[in-house]
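Reviewer 2 asked us to include a model.

Predict the structure of this chain.
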Amino acid sequence: MTSGPSTGEAVLAPSTLPGREYVSASVLARDLRTGERLLAVDPDVPLLPASNAKLVTAARAFCELGPEYRFETPVYADGPVRKGVLLGDLVVSGRGAPDLSQADLMALADEVAGAGIETVAGELIVDASAFDDQFLGPGWTWDDGQFEYGAKSTPLAVERNTVDITVAHRNGSVSVDASPSSDIVRFDVDVEPGQTTSLEVYKKRASEVIRVEGEIPPGETQTAASPVDDPMMHAASLFRDALEAKGIAVDGWTRIEHEPITPEGDPCAAVTSAPLVEIVQEMLVHSDNFAAEQLARTIARELDGVGSWELWEEHVSAFLTDRGAEAVRLRDGSGLSRYNLLSASSIVAVLEWCLDRPWSERYWQSLPLTGVEGTVANRLADLPIPVRAKTGTLTGARTLSGYVCEPSGEPAAVFSCLLSNLTGEYEATATDRIDDVVRTIVEATDLS
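Predicted model (structure tokens):
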């Protein structure tokens, strides 16, 4: 059922959301200047938010961690150093950094060498106690983990727990390379020379093997990312290679430890992430699932000591309840979970709440600008005023939520549009229909 319009409230033309008997919709727009509703269609009905869940994750991250928060990845020498020999283990403490890179590992190795360590007599250990041992989010489908967007969430993660697979057709032969490569990365390649580019790159289910298949024409080079099956061992292997490149030998094995390790003294090396505000902006502009899950689990760790999705759900549920949301559920940070349910009114409440925070400008400026950048670069470019909005896409669901702004850029209205239970032509045209809804909202603001 469609909510009846209040006085002055815009009314959707039937052509804007065709087939309403077959499509579930939850829509709400509010004028921030007057507090009046501009548009409402079943605003309290909870539906799949898809990546609009990231708007809530970003709000919780700014609130609990702060815009300047930085993840630290320290390395400890767990034992004395005698004549260049560490008489103990070298411990890397993973703390959830979503932007840890191969270059960061080289920087860590350089600092370890600078601490006078030439040989590690013990083991290379990854302290993985910051997060629990669940690496795929609750409610993810069985095949999500095969593709880049479903990379595992781990306390130690390098290059977003993915590798770039480059396929090239040169001089009559096809080559396949991975970066960053380690002993963990293995391939199953079935790529042939052809006249068109038709490549699929994915991790085989319940396997360490990355499958690369299809065809590629002469002279072409294509790069695609794939998740790694055992990302912490992959990261440890890369760090071990970095240590060796700095002339540091590790005599013992590599081990992942899920119980906390508490070496004495300060770290012998450490790197820090970009500030949270930059991570959030990248997450929202490019809809980065991996960063969202690292943030959700880090919030749980900061509040309760362990980064688990279960604790995240407890805290985010309380947060949504405080915003007046009812009958909603958020099980992960990215929106990939099929268990998630948010309403347009709950998302609008979060977006409005953020505008009253000290970091409000940093928050709304993190949303991509339609017609300009990220996942909305090719949408709503015809609008006469700025709109900053976050997309959401799952099979059977399309969403868009954000701010309609003054010509100066300041938010003037807030909106959320969720469409679910989409099939056939209704799914194919859902994005266009949502854009039509936004145009109706923009007209109702009288800003154009």
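The longest helix spans residues 289-304. The mean pLDDT is 95. We have added this to the supplementary material.
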